[in-house]
Amino acid sequence: VGVDITISEVEAKLEQLNGSKSGGPDNLHPRILKELAHEIASPLAQIFNESLNSGVVPFDWRIANIVPIFKKGKKSDPGNYRPVSLTSVVCKVLEKFLKEKVVKDIEVNGNWDKLQHGFTKGRSCQTNLISFFEKVTDFLDKGNAVDLIYLDFSKAFDTVPHEELLVKLEKMGINMKIGRWIRNWLKGRLQRVILKDELSGWREVTSG
Questions:
Q1: What's one Pfam family here (predicted)?
Q2: Model's pTM, two decimal places?
């Protein structure tokens, strides 16, 4: 099954870019892409479709600059910094299309968990609380006791194994070409840390 992205769709996504955000290692700033949305929409649509249909992901789309943002505590403690990953803005535009298509595939196949509130359109912390209180009050009204266990996994996002993620996506029935593209997008990813004017060496990313 093909995956086609139109010129008008690309132009609309480019116009939605936040011009004040930072660019990635390719030095293509979002403000430039936004200002030239009409002019570059056609070649970008061609590049996006070729990448999706061939499964080839350019190297510049698989590298990231990591900028440590200080949170609080001792500045000498690396754990007190939040790493912000700056990747290619061009690739981020394509990623937005893929996210929409992946979510649609999951919804159509009925694989979206009804208890999922995070990262779900139309749902939030508030809807989660409402659902939670409804269940608790229902149990209490029936004379049942309610025990709660809260779990917070440390570095949960950063430790997701890529292979397990790909297996999960395949089971959820996403488009085969998108699945292949995501696999290649995750393969050979590199990142480096930027601190002031200093650059670290490149390190491979295998999780997160």
A1: RVT_1
A2: 0.82
Cα-Cα-Cα-Cα torsion 57, 4, 11, 37, nearest 10 degrees, comes to: 40
Rounded distance between C-alpha atoms, residue 110 and residue 118, angstroms:
17
Cα end-to-end distance, the chain, whole Å: 28
CA–CA distances in Å: residue 146 to residues 13, 105, 117, 125: 46, 36, 21, 21
**Phi, psi angle pair for 83, to nearest 5°:** -75, 125
**Beta carbons within 10 angstroms of residue 199's beta carbon:** 11
pLDDT tier for residue 113 given thresholds of 50, 70 and 90: confident
Q: C-alpha angle 86/87/88, rounded to 5°?
A: 135
d(CA 22, CA 30): 7
Domain ranges of the chain: 7-110+162-204
Q: Rounded to the nearest 5°, which phi and psi values hold at 67?
A: -110, 115
Which residue(s) pair with 204 in the sheet?
A: 190
| Alpha-carbon span 193 to 162, nearest angstrom | 21
Question: How far is 171 from 14, CA to CA, in rounded Å?
Answer: 32
Q: What HEC string does 180-201 produce?
A: HHHHHHHCCCEEEEEECCEECC
Confidence of residue 123 (pLDDT cuts 50, 70, 90): confident
